[in-house]
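Why do we bother with a discrete structure alphabet at all? Because it lets us treat a fold like text: something you can write down, compare, and reason about line by line. To make this less abstract, here is a complete entry for DUF2059 domain-containing protein. Read it the way you would read a sentence in a foreign language you are learning: slowly, and without expecting to understand everything at once.
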Amino acid sequence: MKQLTLGLPFTTFIKLQNPLKPLRYFLSLLLIASALLVNFTVSADEDSRRYDVEQLLIEMKTESMIDTMYDQVTQMMLGMKQQLKVKESEQEMFETFMLKSTEIMRQELGWAQLKQPMIDLYAKHYSEKELADMIAFYRSESGRSMVEKMPLVMQESMIMTQALAQPMMIKMQSLSVEFNQELQAYREANTSEEVAD
């Protein structure tokens, strides 16, 4: 397979593995066993708390915020062309790769996948009173203002972080080149010794 080189050494490895499969299988068996031993029902208190969590996430406009975040990530990644010294002839290939990458993120970590785990998490850590107080805040003028301004705050935070990370990335890249050179020299030296033996 031909490797695409983008000015700077820019190689992306994406490994999709499922190390949690044995754990999920074990938890499934444990759940079945528990269901046979006890009357497995959700209490009214827990049901009420989960409803409150869902209302809180609605007031926070979480789904819209996640969509906005992915839009911003997509634009930020497409804007990396200059830093990565993408050639004009490579732009279409680069943009296709970046758009496919963010589409995978949307599919695997979209609202449909995140909603129930987030409800579980909030219901686990917050009491009904705490949830009620947060819902009241997000329904208030200040809370609504916070929700409306949050996408812009997130966007500017990402730009700020990207700018602050540039010197670090240059140093990391230099270190990576240095390590690759040292590793290559080490392997060549050891290969020569093995041949001599």
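What the structure line is telling us, in plain words: The two ends are 35 Å apart (CA to CA). The CA atoms of residues 158 and 164 lie 10 Å apart.
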